[in-house]
Amino acid sequence: MTVPTLIATIGHAPQVVTRALDWLLQPDQEPNLAHVVLVHTRSYNPDRSHWPSFEHFTAYLTAHYGISVQLAPIQDRAGRTIFDTNSVAEAELTFNTVFNVVRELKRERRRLHGLMAGGRKNMIIYMMLAAQLLFHEDDRLWHLFSEPERITPHAPDESTLVEIPVFQLATTMPMMHALIVESHDPAAAMRLYRREVTPNQLRKLQAFYYEGCDEADREILRLAYRGMSNEQIGNIVGLSGSRVSGRISEMALRFYTPQYGGVLRNATEGAVRPKHVRQPFLDALRPLLRGL
């Protein structure tokens, strides 16, 4: 069963969430909405909020609306929640967090309502980008017209949600969409797409990886690209080191030999199978493997 869910970024004015919920929970909108996901930093200013702390705010959502609340803190690689999104690195962490949260919710078959009204401008932009990459036709993206400086949690006469059109890249740019959606680091995947691969090359790489390799092959390739030895890979996938080596060689044969399904022959002029195949083969697949 599809669970209607609101996902919102939170800044210094969390009352945008309660005002959005007041509008969405109307009988002619999404009265069955039962779950809220909040993407947030450690920054919270009680002087600009109705609630003295972030914890009081989340408790109010549960008590007042009877809905479940899921927190999605923006964390650095050490697992620490960042204070704000003032630097390039923090902005990239923010995009990755928003993207991965939306992706997991869609994998759970949630019908999403994205709110573009809370947090810094980059957080709002990343919500829009995540929607373009991941939203389905029945998902909705909203902007709240209200006065956030007023700290009252409810302002029905002054608050309106307006739907924002979503340009779905899954249908208009399927190759870029596939590359980015499979990555846990979408910011890096987008840079890679722009700088290092043409649409034609990406199409051929994806055809080889997803159609010419089974799931076991793909797992071996991902682990090999991370620098693991054949023996280390074998311990993970349940094969001997020699069998892992053999499977990599078999994949390389398909990659470099057109008669054996080597769909990449035309990706570069004059492609030939190198004598020592492992590293050149992995390097050639880098636009896919780097983000997986």
Radius of gyration: 23 Å
Q: What is the H-and-E element order?
A: EHEHEHEHEEHHHHHHHHH
What fraction of residues sit in β-strands? 5-15%
CATH superfamily of the largest domain: Hypothetical protein VC1899 like domain (Restriction endonuclease-like)
CATH secondary-structure class of the largest domain? Alpha Beta
Mean pLDDT: 83
- Count of all domains: 2
DSSP strand count: 6
The helix-and-strand class reads alpha/beta
Going by CATH, the architecture of the largest domain would be: 3-Layer(aba) Sandwich
Structure description:
With 292 residues, this protein is of the alpha/beta class. The protein has two domains: 4-171, Rossmann fold (3-Layer(aba) Sandwich); 173-289, no CATH class. The chain contains 13 helices and six strands. It has a six-stranded mixed β-sheet, with helices on both faces. The chain is elongated and about 70 Å long. 33% of the residues are buried. Residues 259-270 have low confidence and may be disordered.
List the helices and strands and how they pair.
Elements: E1 4-9, H1 15-24, E2 35-40, H2 54-65, E3 68-73, H3 88-107, E4 111-115, H4 121-134, E5 140-145, E6 160-163, H5 169-172, H6 174-181, H7 186-196, H8 199-211, H9 215-225, H10 230-237, H11 241-256, H12 278-284, H13 286-289
Helix pairs in contact: 3-4, 6-7, 6-8, 10-11
What's a concise summary of this model?
The chain is α/β, with parallel strands linked by helices and 292 residues long.
List keywords for this structure.
Rossmann fold; alpha/beta; 292 residues; 6 strands; 2 domains; 13 helices
